């Protein structure tokens, strides 16, 4: 892929991660090769080119990772027994209110975890 072209946040992140993960790098290279072959044949439309690199797929993966992290935090909070919740709001540059929900608890060390950002 051309370094001079901005491929969007999702694909740029995947390309960055592929530098450090050989399996992902092989998948990206295969997708690029298949895309070039399809482009050379003049085929239009998506056809059967499945890459699993779409924004929707990426968002689903992020959602699953988020759920796993929250499950780990929930287990740590259960083990800690005592916790506190902090809710704070602020406006972004477009004057839109955003609310952060943070949970604090102590195991061997003090933990402060961002649980959610709510618009």
The total of beta strands comes to 3
Largest sheet: 3 strands, antiparallel
Kindly provide the radius of gyration, computed on alpha-carbon positions and rounded to a whole number of angstroms: 21 Å
Q: List low-confidence stretches.
A: none
The portion of residues forming beta strands comes to 15-25%
The ordered H/E elements are: HHHEEE
**Large-scale geometry:** elongated
Summarize the structure.
The protein is built from three helices and three strands.
Topology diagram in text:
Blueprint lengths: L8 H10 L3 H20 L13 H26 L2 E9 L5 E10 L3 E9 L1
Antiparallel strand pairs: 1-2, 2-3
Task: Tell me what the structure shows.
47% of the residues lie in helices and 24% in strands. With 119 residues, the protein is of the alpha+beta class. It folds into two domains: 1-53, no CATH class; 72-119, no CATH class. The protein has a three-stranded antiparallel β-sheet with strand order 1-2-3. The longest helix has 26 residues, at 55-80. The mean pLDDT is 84. Keywords: Signal. Residues 1-25 form the signal peptide.
